[in-house]
Task: inverse folding
DNA sequence: AAGATGATCTTTACGCCGTCCAGATTCAGA
DNA sequence: TCTGAATCTGGACGGCGTAAAGATCATCTT
């Protein structure tokens, strides 16, 4: 009896409304931006009543958390891909940084939700810095591959955190027009990102002096 | 006739309502946080009707712009003080960075408004990076004092921008609890900030290699 | 001095928001 | 097939940003 429904399992009235709501939210996020992301608009987009989401999420914040979760997954995957495609350790490190910033620039609204949804909790979700395939752990592991002192746990965390701060600051700043002339002067956005990272010298910690 | 009213000049019905609204907004921002900062709440706090602010600000965004403006002024002044109090060039640079991050940590709601109010405009206000006493110019000038190559305008801007990215990223990250153990391990928040900046090596550009 | 002018503020109203509640619908298991 | 529970709808409440119309009051003109 369970085998009749295979690909599309619609367990209840609507189907997987939880899934549909998250998709609708991400669709709205891309097309209308973060300010237009109201719970009612999401329900409208999904074709249900304004109160329907409350059977799948405690409140609006929990829906945004779910959207943010998928954002972190995307970011982690994109960075893993960048790391895998790079050959040298140097390329891996810069590739990770550039990949992070480009993700934020390619998905500005989603990137905003990822951090905003954690703001009041004052804690980023575990899969952003705890799980093995998280962006944080990938950078830390690459630092180790590059020869960082593994015994000095504090210093290693400090270096990884510093790199995260640099990448996040850059991701936030790049949306402002006032740096456009620098991008032009350097011949493109990626060159600008790389040059900025070079100034920040996030590789210093990775290279045993 | 103008001399009768000296200290308290109440030009119209309420007095300087524009001033009062900005003050009310900043009061609410401190006590209730950024999410509680509705235009109606500000009007309530100032003791006027919900529509009264519209005679002094085009919309809510313009009121927030005014609040943000004062935030930038405060930040610029605090950084100028930090720079003045430092003796060596090294101290000036680190002092500027630490001062920036500590401002954000001491006034998290205001700091948020400063950037959020510029988000849709995609442009930070002039007095954040154009005027001589702006944070940006102070850092750039200190780079020059430290011996940066003045003829290479692009590189100088790039270095200043990189330092800004680092400081902003740090300012945003420091509110999350997950770095608390690092603060403890390093013996306090300021030590943590300094150590992170050291890892980012924002001074590299200032010291001619 | 008196009246006109225009800025300031209030009242009222509209549509949207997040959220709750009561009832209708539909599914799952006995 | 009946029962209970999960899911969705419709309606309601208070709060929001904002617009329009009317009241109030300082200032300017005469």
Result:
């Amino acid at each position: 009896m369970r085998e009749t429904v295979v690909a599309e399992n619609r367990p209840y009235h609507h189907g997987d409304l939880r899934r549909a709501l998250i998709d609708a939210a991400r669709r709205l996020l891309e097309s209308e931006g973060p300010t237009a992301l109201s719970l009612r608009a999401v329900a409208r987009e999904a074709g249900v009543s304004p109160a329907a989401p409350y059977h799948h999420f405690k409140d609006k914040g929990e829906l945004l958390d779910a959207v943010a979760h998928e954002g972190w997954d995307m970011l982690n995957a994109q960075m893993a891909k960048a790391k895998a495609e790079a050959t040298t350790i140097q390329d891996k490190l810069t590739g990770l940084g550039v990949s992070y910033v480009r993700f934020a620039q390619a998905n500005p609204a989603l990137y905003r939700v990822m951090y905003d949804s954690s703001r009041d909790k004052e804690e980023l979700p575990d899969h952003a810095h705890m799980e093995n395939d998280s962006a944080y752990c990938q950078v830390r592991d690459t630092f180790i591959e590059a020869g960082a002192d593994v015994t000095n746990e504090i210093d290693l965390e400090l270096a990884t955190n510093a790199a995260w701060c640099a990448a996040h600051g850059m991701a936030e700043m790049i949306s402002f027009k006032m740096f456009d002339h620098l991008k032009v002067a350097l011949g493109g956005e990626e060159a600008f990102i790389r040059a900025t990272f070079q100034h920040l010298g996030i590789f210093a910690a990775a290279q045993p002096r």
